[in-house]
Amino acid sequence: MVTLTRADGNWAGDLDLTRRGIALALAGGYAVAAFDANAEPIHTDETGLICATVEIDAGDRRIPGYLARPAARSTSRGGRHPVVFVNSEIFGVHEWVRDICRRLAKAGYVALAPDFFVRAGDPSKLVDFPAILKIVQATPEAQVTADTAAALKYLSAQPYADMQRLGVTGFCWGGGATWLCCERFAQFKAGVAWYGPLKAGAYPRTAPIELAKDLHAPVLGLYGGQDKGIPQADIEAMRAALTAAGKTRSEIVVYPDAQHGFLADYRPSYDPKAAADGWAKMLAHFKANGVG
Q1: pTM of the predicted protein model
Q2: Which of 143, 154, 203, 268 places its Cα 20 to 30 Å from the Cα of 21?
């Protein structure tokens, strides 16, 4: 079990850094542009886990991915564990995303976070937000979809991964990618999207709301009522699209006082109450839909 503890703020303000904050972020492997110098990020140890950076054959090249899984074999399903595919934030696969994988592994999952941005750069090392966005915009949607398929193929070849119990989650950019995963890949049994954009915006990809009718699996959306980048009108529009498409097993939960990035304990936007409740709801959603 993971206990989430720390304190509050908004993602627009995450870019206002001190030199000390930058140094701490670089030393700890966190996204520099969003690190709060006063943060005490959660650290999940590797006891009882196997954690490694793996290489995924993506066709044009091998891309890295961070993988964490229980060290012990499962007592059922031929020793295999359920799987959660992790879509990173806009800042890439930095230390917080790796820690999320370890938290999921502690809960009994195989967790893999591919580095989708590796061809264009490493956004976690940058402070300038336009430069970060440039890396994301240089990562085509079709490439992300192909890399996702390659990562699923990699997981399918692993003897410890039960791909019949496959879920997906993601944060910010990765929250939008999570909706798209469940719209484009029939393998996923459930998805949990943390404050992911629902309509077209700065990211070069199809808006999840446009493909709501294509959902193959139920998605739980977790959003902040004080999110300046995802207005409540977008959330209501997505709810209406889900209803119109008959996707009654999908739902969106809004935490009225939470901001964008409320799960990210290394950022000033962290909201411990919303984070803990959302984490519990995520695990419950996975188990209720055969990912557990």
Answers
A1: 0.94
A2: 203
